[in-house]
Every structure is written in structure tokens, then in C-alpha cells.
């Protein structure tokens, strides 16, 4: 039911009650059982929400669904622990706090996946979206979660007032909240239908008479080029002619700035300090062209403010995992100069990260340009879900957002989070929109996620009685002993490696971790002695082979032309990978797993959580593999009693992925 609150069909009213049954269950069961139900809930939710991922292959789809669902399981576990032996009324506080805290966790690291945050369901309701200018999308999520908590309380509370009467009362409150502003803003789909007949040259939002100095007319181009055609040189000339035609059409409609979708130009857009000659000739005489394509060396996806001389340039910082593994990411998100003041540019799924738009606004951007290629989505639901992020980024940053998408929807979103004009998905055209340049800073732009310490403090305080009881258990005490000092060394090493990126630093930190673990637990307890080492190695090797096949299948499903590089024969990378994998596997899967040999699901949970924390800053491709390995290797450790398989497979696949995907090219 919750998935239906997102596009498509975007029945946002369902979000106000969809979580109530889950909240009600976690309030009356143990944390372990709650986590299992949370996992099941997460799988069902994400299977529907992320259905467009099938285009990357079934295996990749299933793995990502499982990964995202672990966060729902974590929520259920934390909420149940916080509500242990407490009156039901505490769910009004505990459930929303745990939900928001876990949502924030999903935005961290190179594998951040905040696609299905609860607040996004309200993207068409400007009066609710406006809350994000204070606390980001998380404040909207908190509002919706609290109403679900009220409904759940009505479902579970005994007393003189029967549950049905309680639910009726709270349902009335929910209906009021949902209906407020129902007509405040027309759904984006309605706007799209209105403009569909005029998609080839839509003009919206322009006032009669002269345009004030703080407003500009932006021409948004939408090419609707299929994914396969973008990799076929035979289509290059037609794509160039199309872009030239659409750009001139936008200029004829009075555009001061023309924006292309991500990677629109089939070739080089920037060479040194100059834009490519044809690209430069297309720029408006006194305005700017935000052109997108590749740098001269082909190593970067670039967006440039084009003219005879480059006025500004933004390289893609967050590369698509696996699909853009061989490219070099940009160094940071910075506002770029244009003839109309500073502007911020985000490329592709960088728009899903609230911190990107916030950083650009704080750096002086007066307007935000989001350029994306959404042709790889399997259906229209994906692109429309991608659009909803732009609504929140506009309200959070207090900036107009201009979105140019290859297959649509392309749109202009005003700083209050309203979709003012739009080109529908699946068509070619130009949209001319009048955008306002702004300088004011919203509370969210100033303070960001600082307030999110509150929900975590609430969860920690409420869960303390359960935590104290759990720690008193003898087996838990042994687990904490094995986690503690090696854990300090592990995370100190991760910090050191991020401050001084060096294979030598990583190797030394991992060696120290291995020594500390073995001195504390011993070789037998760490899985280096005893057990079935042959079965362990065989199982882990099969896992590694499957992972490599899934990676290649994902490329094949999307038609990415991936030139496979030879696996390195140099000795040093293999030695470093072996030392790094040895330290982590002996600690997390070995010593920690040995303390929990009778509780395999807890081993998996701790194994995945520890690996995720250790590799927050790792390249997304390696981080994804290591998380899969963390879950699988924990089971292998339990079933075989040996850690040798995880040690060998982890290090070997690390080096193989680095070589095959060109990750070594990254700084």
C-alpha cells in the first residue's frame, strides 16, 4: 500500500495510514520478530516501488531490494527495543523517531539510497513540501510518520473507547490533513496532460510585459533519444542536428539560458578552457548554454556554461555505480558563474541527495539546474519518481529548479516546491519557463540535518532498559568484548585511510586489526583453525563468480559498451587486498561470528552493519560487493566453521573488480 503513494500512481493519501499496521506490530512483539516483519515489509514495499530496476537484470534487482529492506528491518528492531515494557502511547514518539533516524542513515556513504523516503509521497502538496525548507524532506517524513503512529495507537489501545472508535477519530484527522491543500496544487500528471498537446514548443509561467532583472527565461530541451541510440555512432549526426534545432527554437522563444539533458551532445563539449566550436556557436548571444557531454579526454561527464570561453564547469561527482565506474568523478559541488550570477548544476541522480542542493545554495547559487538522462528507466514510473526529488530540492534550498531530462519529465519547479511547467515523459520538445533568481537562505540551507540528533537521542533513551538487559547476558558480553578494541582499531584505520588515501595505510591498519583480534580471541575462535576450510573456500569462490556474472549481466541488459580490462598481474595490489580482507574477515566474520555461532541472523546483521560503516567512503562498486560478501560470508562462517573462504574470495574479487571496472583510475 505504501508503494502506491509514490509515482505511479502517486496516491499520496495512503502514506498517512500505510505504516500504521507495522507500527502496531512492533509495539507488541520482540525486537527479533519485529526485525523479521520489518524485512518482509521492506521487501514487499521496494519490490513495487523499484520495479523499474528490472531493466538492469533480475539478479541486480533482487539484491538491491534485499539491501534496501534491511533498513526497514533495522527500524522495526529499534522501535521494538524502544517500546520494550512501555505503555502503548510511547509508540507516538518511538516509532516516528526510529523511522526518521533510519531514513537519515540511508543517505550516508557512496551507496546512499534515499529513493523511497516517506516524505517524498507528499511531493504534490506544496503546503507540506514547504516544511522541508526548515528540516529537509525528513521533517515531512516525520509529520507523516507521526500520523501513522496516532493511527497505530488507536489500533492497539484497549480501554473504554473501542479501537474502532479510536480509528474513526484518527482517520478523520488524517483525512483533514490529506485534504488540506488537495486543490492547492494540481498534480504533475494533470499539468503534463495539459501541456502534452503543445510539447514541441511549450511556453509556461511567462508574465506579460517586461521581465524583471531578477528573473530569466530558461529554455529546457528534451531530446527523447532512446538509450541504445546514445551508444550508437550511427545516430550521432542526427543527435547533433536535433540539439541544434531545439536550441535555436528555445532562443527564438526568448530564452536567456538554454539547458540540455545529461550527456546530450554526442562527443566533446569542453576541451581545456574552451567549449567545442559547434557547441560554443549555439550559445545565446548575451546568455548562456548549459551544454552536457564529455571532456576531451573522455574521462569525465561534464556540464559547462558554454560560450566562446567557458564561464563555468561542473563535472559529475557521484558516478552511477558500475555504469560509470571507469570515469573520473568531479572533486566537489560548487556554484558556477553565468551571465546572470552564480548557478548550481547537479547531474543525474545527484538530485536525490539533499546535501548536494544545499551545498550549491550555500556556495551562492541563485538557481539550480538539474540535468539527467533517464532513458535507461524501464518504465515511466522511474522518471516520474526521479522528478519528485526536484520538488523537495527546490523547497529545501529556496531556489528555483530547472530540470532537463532526456526522455522527461522536464520541468520548472519554483522555490516553494510547486511544479509550474512540465514537458511529459516520452516526448521531444522545448519548454520555455520564467525562473526567479534568489539569494535568501532557508533554515535548512543554514543548519542542514543538525536536528536529526533528536530522533536518535529519543531512540537511545527509550531503548536503554532493553539494551541494559541485553548487555547483562553472558554471550552478549563476550560479543561486545570481541567487538570493542578491535572495532576501535578498525574504525581508526578507516578514518586514517580516508585522510591519507594510500594502499600502505590501509594495509597497516588492517594488519593491526588482525593482530588485535587474534590476541583477543585466538586463531581457533577466529575461524583460522578447525572447521571445513575446503567447503568454506569453495562456497566463497562460487559467491565471487556469481557476483562477477551479475555485474556483466547488468551491463548487457542496458547495452553499456564495457571494454573489459585485463586483471592486473602486479603483486602489490594482490598483497594489499589480501591483508585488508584478512583483517576484516578475521575480526567481523571470524571472532565476532564465533561468539554468535548459534545466532546466525545476528551474525549477519552485525557483519553487514560493521562492513557498511567501514566502507562508507569506498567506491560504490566495491562497497556494494563488500556488503553482499558480508552477508554471505557470515553464513559461510556459520555453516563451515572456517573463515579461510571469505578471506580469499573477498581479496580476490576486490582486485578483480578494480581491474575490470577501471576503479584504479579514480583519485
Describe the structure concisely for a colleague.
With 667 residues, the protein is α/β, with parallel strands linked by helices. It has helices at residues 20-26, 31-49, 58-82, 91-105, 126-129, 132-135, 137-156, 163-179, 188-196, 227-230, 236-252, 277-281, 354-362, 381-397, 443-447, 453-471, 474-499, 503-521, 533-558, 571-595, 600-614, 620-640, 644-661; strands at 202-204, 215-222, 257-259, 268-271, 274-275, 288-295, 301-306, 312-315, 336-338, 341-347, 368-372, 401-405, 410-413, 419-423, 429-436.
Poorly predicted regions are 180-211
Indicate the percent of residues in helices: 40-55%
Distance between the termini: 44 Å
DSSP, total strands: 15
Q: Give the percentage of residues in beta strands.
A: 5-15%
Q: Mind summarizing the main beta sheet?
A: 9 strands, mixed
User: How many helices does DSSP assign?
Assistant: 23
Mean pLDDT across all residues, rounded? 85
Radius of gyration: 26 Å
Structural classification? alpha/beta
Overall geometric form? globular
